[in-house]
Write a structure and sequence with these properties.
The structure is a single chain. With 206 residues, the chain is of the alpha/beta class. It folds into two domains: 7-166, Lambda Exonuclease, Chain A (Alpha-Beta Complex), CATH 3.90.320; 167-200, no CATH class. It has helices spanning 13-21, 23-30, 39-47, 102-119, 143-162, 180-183, 185-188, 194-202, and strands at 11-12, 51-55, 58-68, 73-82, 88-94, 125-130, 135-140. Helix 1 (13-21) packs across helix 2 and helix 1 (13-21) runs antiparallel to helix 4. The structure holds iron/sulfur cluster.
């Protein structure tokens, strides 16, 4: 375990979701400080207002600050439900209808890893709450997801410390990306072949 992370080494939990969706999006936000306020971020801010309440026998914490000394990871949870036996159950709020998303799962799993370290108790599952459909999707934090999450923390830290911004890939994810205008993928991606650009974008070893 490494103690005393300096600020530049700390990885924000939200950066994991950005990186998983697109490393360039992560770099534009966390290296170049480009940020686009949209429905998702506005809703996220509302959900982060700190609050603690007892609801139907379950302690519900909103806007709880999270930290992992082991991973050098910090952020906030939209909601953490604390059962009477001390088990934590993180819930992340997302816009749109209920759908599976590896990117959201990595972000939620990072919250679970922080909670496990903070509470000293395993956190086996959590949920993504989808605003549009008003439904939850439960996520099990199995070994594969925990491994992917920890590898993503390392990849994000490497990218942030290097201050590098990967090239754009004009792909299917771009039209839904909140940074489409700032990124200009369709204007810039032509210089690299699409295959090489995709490989550079997601190569965790770089
Ligand atoms: S527009 Fe495309 S390449 Fe650019 S940051 Fe968004 S997803 Fe990544």
């Amino acid at each position: 375990m490494k103690e005393g992370w300096v600020e530049d080494e700390l990885v924000m939990i939200s950066a994991l979701q950005h990186y998983s969706y697109c490393p360039r999006q992560c770099a534009l936000i966390h290296v170049e400080q480009v940020f686009d306020e949209n429905l998702y971020t506005m809703r996220g801010k509302r959900a982060h207002d700190p609050e603690s309440a007892l609801e139907e026998g379950v302690r519900v914490e909103r806007g709880l600050s999270l930290f992992s000394e082991r991973l050098g990871l910090a952020g906030k949870a939209d909601v953490v439900e604390l059962a009477s036996d001390g088990t934590s159950y993180p819930v992340e709020y997302k816009s749109g209808p209920r759908r599976g998303s590896r990117h959201d799962d990595v972000q939620l799993c990072a919250q679970a890893l922080c909670l496990k370290e903070m509470m000293g108790q395993d956190v086996p599952r959590g949920a993504i709450y989808h605003y549009t459909s008003r439904r939850r999707r439960e996520v099990v934090f199995d070994g594969a997801l925990r491994f992917l999450t920890q590898e993503t923390v390392l990849a994000v830290r490497r990218m942030l410390l290097a201050g590098s911004v990967p090239p754009p890939v004009a792909g299917a994810r771009c039209p839904k990306c909140s940074l489409l205008d700032a990124c200009m993928p369709f204007a810039l991606a032509g210089a690299l072949g699409a295959e090489e650009a995709e490989a550079r974008l997601y190569d965790l070893r770089r």
